[in-house]
Task: structure prediction
Amino acid sequence: MNATDRLSLGTQAARKLATTTKTVPQMAEITPRHLLAALPWVEVPGATYRLNRRLTYQVGDGRVEFVTTGASVSVIPRELGELPALRGFADLDALQALAGRFVQREVEPGQVIVTEGTPADQVVLVAHGRVARTSTGEYGTARPLGVLAGGDHLGDQALAATPGAWRFTATADTACILLTLSRQSLEEVLERSPELRAHLLMEEVERSINKYGEAAIAMSSGHTGEVALPGTFVDYEASPREYELSVAQTVLRIHTRVADLYNEPMNQTEQQLRLTVEALLERKEDELLNNREFGLLHNADLKQRIHTRSGPPTPDDMDDLLSRRRRTRFFLAHPRAIAALGRQCNRRGVVPGVGEANGRRVMTWRDVPVLPCDKIPISDGGLTSILAMRTGQDDQGVVGLHRTGLPDEIRPGVTARFMGVSEKAIVTYLVSTYYSAAVLVPDALGVLESVDVRSW
Result:
């Protein structure tokens, strides 16, 4: 129809006198940020948070690192200091001699590595793969004792003067690459290194410790009459850890012409600041998880790290993770890990609970919310982690650290400081947020590792 044939005004012409309804700028990067909402935040006026703890006696329960050259795997000599019997031994020549005598061994899934009750005559380092440990229960049934993975080891007692016998059976769950050191090879090194022999034979000073590794507080109970009571004191760590607030910053630039003329119906400066702050908060949550200094994934105690039994996260794995601490406030998992857990629940006919957290409906496990967070990385092989944490200072849990009440604050802990106008008429603002996180006691944070999100 021609314009001259119209009986009324067309929409194209009518729009010349009308305004459109607009949305504020949208941003796909914005997520619920459950971790920021769930953590209790502690004010740090001095920019440094000192974490005082009772004196703890460390044992060598760390993980060993390896060097891979083609198909050959070897242990880094200094990493042998992570074995309890070698903790504190600094003779590099002796450690190199030990490392050179480890023999690479490849085992197939289901192959038995060591058998309960047989002599513990070797040290076994797990370079790759997953190893399940079991022992014989009271009624003759197999009792699972957990899973070892790359970097773990077994056979500490083989370094002792009287090794004894294996107290469990270790079986390869997957194809594994192991490094083994026989007792005979150890004796060859001991004959050439009197210092190593003295270190292994040296009687350790008997320390009174509790089950958490802390210096025990002597006391008496259940006595009658005039009994001499023990004296005691509570010892502290001599060098407590200190957390300095980290920072995420950017310089926001806005042209004065845009800010002056294109300011209706929405304030351009406000919208630019809003989107910039959202991006900063996304980075803040990412750093709280992945920063190598204070990120939660890197600061979980090794004793609080467990592996899945078969790859995908099962109800048994979630129960194992939950049972390692009191008052677990929430789990934190990648959405794909939550989906993998749901598939395993469906396979077993288990119905997870549903609850509310931070104003949103989420899955729960044993009435504990399972919060989604896409900042938890997934490896190229489809492996990720699930975190469980107790929170708050009163419960000796995980806390977030920040500083509020700063000049030019536009949100709690977020500042936008005017920096001036350039010769090109560009207004600049320095947008900053300060943060960190601390785990007050080791059992406040646990990690379920090697969670396979690709297996069905």
Summary: The chain has a mean pLDDT of 89. The two ends are 59 Å apart (CA to CA).
